[in-house]
Amino acid sequence: MTTFRNIKTLRYFALVVFTALTALFFTACGDDGDPVDTGTEKDANFVSFSFAGIVGSATIDQNAKTVTATAGSTVDLTTLAPDFTLSLNATAKVGAVAQASGTTQNDFTNAVTYTVTSGDGTNTQDWTVTITKGSAAAYHAYPFEEGIVHQTTSTAGVEIQSIVYVDKWGEWTSEESTVEIMGFSSTTRKITKGKEVWNIDMNELTATHTILPAIDYIDLENMTDETKEEMKNMRMEIVGEETYLGYKCKKVVIKDEDSQVTSEALVYGNMVLKMKAMIEGIEVIIEVTKIEKTTPPAEKFEVPAGVTITEI
Q: What letter does residue 80 receive in the DSSP assignment?
């Protein structure tokens, strides 16, 4: 099942949903794009770097050993815990403090030096991480910092029930989906933490772990002339507003005759609450049925014990 996290390429949103829905019948692990190469155990590099409230994506220079990023105007740089990926089995410290992705906080008011040690222990490199505050508002995949979203997807007579656990404005999500076909029940969990994704088959207790490349987003909350031009190129148009589940939504229409995809969606912030699409004559319907603005259980963002993970 596809989450509502990536409003970017909404032109193909319905197609992605249908493809993922089909894949769910046969495997717990969909293709989330080309994984990032983490290199070898002799390398001591940053591979990815992100945080809640980043504007655009970070620039990683493996020759200069620098990471530069821009934070939204409301981001607190003094207690930032970035999500990062290092070379294969590499570790990092800031001073004497071991660093854990998404957990260890640092003050990025000034540049921070990370000492990265390769997985085989033979290579140590100092990396300078610089984060500056921009004037633009940060991109938020969800219009709330944390919560629990209940949604239903249906197509070809099959219905999938999903619960999406949201943290850090959608920088972290965990989506549990269940489908029943001819008496067989399949449950999956997709955990996303920044650019890291775990696709878990909860029946077989197997999973894949992928590091995704940087993704650009169309930000419907903070519209710019560039956003409007990109929407035009993607045959995407905002045609009005409508209230759904008590939330004021933008009504977004896509008509792409070339790919035989048409869709009409109600979007709250950058989150699709309701969508009806036709893909080559096949109807796909997605509906959010309830939003709970509450703190999700921390364990939902962790791979359950006993799951065998394959790196891809």
A: B
